[in-house]
Amino acid sequence: MSQAMVVYQERASSRKRVFITDCEGPISKNDNAFELASHYIPNGDKFFSIVSKYDDVLADVLKRPNYKAGDTLRLILPFFKAYDVTNEKMIKFSRESILLVPKADQTLKEINERMPAYIVSTSYEPYIKALCDVVGFPFKNTFCTKLNIDTYSITEEERKRLRELSQEIADMKMIEIPEGAENLADFSEEDQRTIKRLDEIFFDEIPKMEIGRILKEINPIGGPEKANAVRKIVEELRLELYDVMYVGDSITDVEAFRLVRENEGITISFNGNKYAVREADIGICSFDTLPLISFALMFKKRGREGVMELLNEFLRTQPPLEEAFEEAYKKRSSVFVWLTDKNREEFGKMSSKFRREVRGEKIGRLG
Predict the structure, then answer these.
(1) What does the alpha-carbon distance between residue 66 and residue 87 come to, in Å, rounded to a whole number?
(2) For 148, which DSSP code?
(3) CA distances (Å), 81 to each of 138, 147, 149, 158, 242, in order?
(4) pLDDT of 122-131, one tens digit each?
């Protein structure tokens, strides 16, 4: 081994590194906003699913200016006010509904004891506080969507109108995003009408209401805000971006993934949907979070190179992808892959299916 390589390995093993993870998906099975909507809004599961798909359209296809993935959590807030959701109700519901991915509490504890660990989540603050209490994770090491819904007022006329609009949205047909869509003309005529109608509701009618200011003032931690959170963590710890391991599972993680990958850190799609798989270095599908401990501790010890070697060890005994997934379903175990242009599409489809198995069909289909 050359002297230069020895020096590199010594530096690699002595560096401080950080573990950053999304919450809903890698840590919990919840989609708290979806569950709140389902609980408090009539036909709320369908309502939320339509708005979430609209979010995917605006953020990933149409790339609407000043709009980012995860802004669903902003769009639905006027409707929460219309159905009398309060801070107290959000806190109580969140505490009572937390459902962890198996071993998530152990995973966070073991990683946090050995290296700096952070949660960067689009979720509302009441949910993240409740989750931190359950798993014993320091809330000061989290980034999430700040919200005090009680400070916003709504008129009775607005309340009535928003309740009408919520049911109009819930009655809409689900939007289908065509493969490779780049603009509105790529959608079916029916879906174009749906998208235009949603534009009218969220960007014309509601902003004119008194409650409309909530759309301007609440800033969900999604898309670029997650990337900004990663930058802030790195700056505070006096690290470099290649010292970051980032774990995510959805469209809100895409920009954080890109930031870390471009700077040669490590990104992991954990039970991710197609958006996460498209941008990550490593794909993991697992019924529990224990694999994250192995990868995080190897990353702490030897950085990106060590993680690649550990993954290769796993892959030596893993059968071809389709067989590996069949085995994982039977044994409630895990599947690993180093993501490339050749396998992203295949793994993405299998990961999306696995995601629905772990988190439930309705939540698993959300972006």
Answers:
(1) 27
(2) -
(3) 30, 13, 8, 10, 42
(4) 999 999 999 9
Rounded average pLDDT over 135-164: 97
Considering its fold, how many domains does the chain have in total?
Answer: 1
> Is 91 among the domain residues?
yes
The rounded Cα 229 to chain-centroid distance in angstroms is 14
Residue 2 belongs to some domain of the structure: no
Q: What is the pLDDT of residues 287-323, one digit of tens each?
A: 999 999 999 999 999 999 999 999 999 999 999 999 9
For 195, the token pair is 């998208």
Q: C-alpha angle with apex 173: 168 to 175, nearest 5 degrees?
A: 115
- At 278, phi and psi to the nearest 5? -60, -25
Query: Is 207 a member of any domain?
Result: yes
Distance from the first to the final alpha carbon of the chain = 47
The answer to whether residue 4 is domain-embedded is no
The CA distance from 358 to 329, in Å, is 10
Residues spanned by the domain of 103: 14-364
| 228 secondary structure, DSSP code | H
Rounded Cα gap, residues 48 and 73, in angstroms? 10
Contacts of 121 (CB under 8 A, 6+ apart): 22, 23, 24, 128, 142, 143, 144, 145, 221
- Which value, in Å, is the radius of gyration of the alpha carbons in the chain? 21
Look at residue 188 and give its three-state secondary structure.
Answer: coil
Total residues belonging to the chain? 367
What is the distance between the alpha carbons of residues 49 and 361, in angstroms, rounded to a whole number?
12
**Tokens 């289909």 found at:** 365
Query: CA torsion sign, 181 to 191 to 25 to 243?
Result: positive
Q: What is the CATH number of the domain that holds 84?
A: 3.40.50.1000
At 1, the pLDDT band (50, 70, 90 cuts) reads very low
Contact call for residues 59 and 68 (beta carbons, < 8 A) = yes
The predicted model scores a pTM of 0.89
